[in-house]
Write a structure and sequence with these properties.
Strand content: 25-35%
Number of strands: 11
Largest sheet: 9 strands, mixed
Number of domains: 3
Amino acid sequence: MKESMYVIKYGEISLKGRNRPQFEAALVANIKQKLNGLTIRIERKNGRIYLFCEPGHEAHIERGLGTVFGIVAFGRARAAEKEPAALFQVAAELAGEALSGRDGLRFKIEARRTDKSFSLTSYQIACETADALIARFPTLTVDVHHPEWTLSVEIREKAYLYGNLTRGLGGLPVGCNGRGLLLLSGGIDSPVAGFLMAKRGLAVDAVYFHTHPFTSPEVKQKVIDIAEILRRYIP
């Protein structure tokens, strides 16, 4: 059974110099914790994280990745052999999926050739891939300024292709900057503060003081509900 593949991009982590592997490891650990119970495989390669899972779990995977701090963007991807014919074939498969149920589509190609031994330059990859797609799908229209669909092609140890990505939360992986204590109340300020603390990599523990009989049970339940929401983002 062929695995589903995701490309996961991070932003600020790439600026961490010699400490970068530690931040990458923290992000991978948080992803695994978020997707606990699913059979997944994660690979770290040259500034990218690739996640592989069994088909049928995509919705769960995408919900989980959308709540992990440190991820800038993520989306389904495909790998191909590093030869133009294989690359064009996978690009056509992705374009066919993007066109499903549509009469036409404005698109552009973004190509990046990390492996300079590949026979085509980044510009040639973009041009020839676009030509191959238009020849197969005449309703496609190139629009580099306002595309509805962007196909990214990265030439690394393999050719990796992916369409529009889902925006992530950004920030840093929770836990990479120590721990903090959050005084949680029923207002808006404390949960927002906790969310922003976690976004900067702080593991957050929450404390609540229930002053019975001066605080009503409804307020206590509200705090519990807020804590449950924060748990979606803070491991």
